[in-house]
């Protein structure tokens, strides 16, 4: 399966001052593109994109770093965010179209627009999302980290599977955006939200651990397992990885539609919070084992 990571780039190759992450297999890295620099070299200049890609596809059984959830998947690096993590809507739209046109089955969007951005302000992104859906591509997006009562765009679009974050305790994270548009939740790390009546939530105790993956440790040439990575950006690639596993397992057939795939991930999620879908956890926390169990 091919998962396109639209982000700050990925440490996918040795080139000039850049180095490939030692825990990302060269044979599982597809050709990508840099829509910020407008060239064919989407090298990461931040570390965020490499962290996201590592959650999906870090190599197993090599004695390095950790293990990607879908470690047999291939990563298509598409750089749409600059070294500071900022990006422009036209570049993001071009990246979505590029990934959909070049064989990605899943697109991961681990970023959010600011709260004042509405659908009217990003027509090119919404058009690109419709194009991706028409090509049979599932788009997964981070709900946002503003503790807001509404999911941020682009995840707020009905064309994107929106992902909120839970902590190590299984509680919704205090930063995770919520609302009716939230589809599902996954590990994002950090502190618990204060929710009365939820035994998983212990905000008065020490926060759960961050999400660790192999990425930059001080420079683009040095790799390690840095702390500080928490957020719905970290949650989204867990869902993208499970989606890749579902497609590969063929429990939904050879080529499930994005809607069928999203519905299956929600149906097999572990229900948290109040019974049934709710604005904090969506359909629940993604469950790789249940999602890949053959249907009866």
Characterization of this structure:
With 296 residues, the protein is α/β, with parallel strands linked by helices. It is 23% helix and 14% strand. It is built from six helices and nine strands. It has a seven-stranded parallel β-sheet, sandwiched between helices. Strands 8-9 form a two-stranded antiparallel ribbon. Helix 1 (48-57) packs parallel to helix 4 (232-249) and helix 2 (89-101) packs parallel to helix 3. The protein is globular, with a radius of gyration of 18 Å. The two termini are 24 Å apart. The model has no long low-confidence stretch (mean pLDDT 96).
Which SSEs are present, and which pair or pack?
Elements: E1 2-7, E2 33-34, H1 48-57, E3 74-79, H2 89-101, E4 106-109, H3 123-134, E5 138-142, E6 161-166, E7 184-187, E8 215-219, E9 222-224, H4 232-249, H5 258-267, H6 288-291
Helix pairs in contact: 1-4, 2-3
């Amino acid at each position: 399966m091919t998962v396109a990571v639209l982000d700050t780039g990925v440490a996918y190759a040795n080139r000039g001052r850049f180095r490939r992450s030692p825990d990302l297999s060269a044979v599982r890295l597809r050709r990508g593109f840099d829509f910020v620099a407008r060239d064919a070299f989407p090298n990461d200049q931040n570390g965020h994109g490499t962290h996201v890609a590592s959650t999906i596809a870090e190599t197993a059984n090599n004695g390095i770093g950790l293990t990607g959830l879908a470690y047999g998947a291939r990563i298509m690096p598409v750089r749409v965010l600059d070294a500071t993590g900022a990006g422009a809507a036209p570049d993001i739209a071009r990246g979505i179209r590029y990934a959909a046109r070049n064989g990605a089955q899943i697109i991961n969007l681990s970023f959010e627009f600011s709260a004042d951005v509405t659908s009217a302000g990003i027509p090119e992104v919404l058009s690109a999302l419709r194009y991706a859906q028409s090509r049979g591509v599932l788009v997964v997006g981070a709900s946002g980290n503003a503790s807001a009562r509404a999911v941020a765009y682009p995840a707020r679009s009905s064309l994107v599977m929106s992902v909120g974050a839970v902590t190590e305790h299984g509680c919704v994270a205090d930063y995770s955006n919520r609302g009716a548009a939230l589809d599902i939740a996954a590990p994002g790390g950090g502190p618990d939200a204060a929710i009365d009546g939820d035994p998983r939530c212990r905000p008065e105790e020490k926060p759960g651990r961050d999400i660790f993956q192999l990425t930059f440790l001080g420079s683009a040439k040095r790799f390690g397992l840095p702390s500080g990575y928490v957020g719905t950006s970290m949650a989204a690639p867990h869902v993208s990885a499970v989606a890749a596993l579902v497609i590969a397992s063929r429990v939904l057939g050879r080529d499930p539609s994005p809607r069928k795939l999203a519905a299956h991930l929600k149906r097999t999620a572990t229900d948290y919070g109040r019974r049934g879908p709710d604005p904090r956890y969506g359909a629940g926390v993604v469950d790789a084992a249940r999602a890949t169990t053959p249907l009866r």
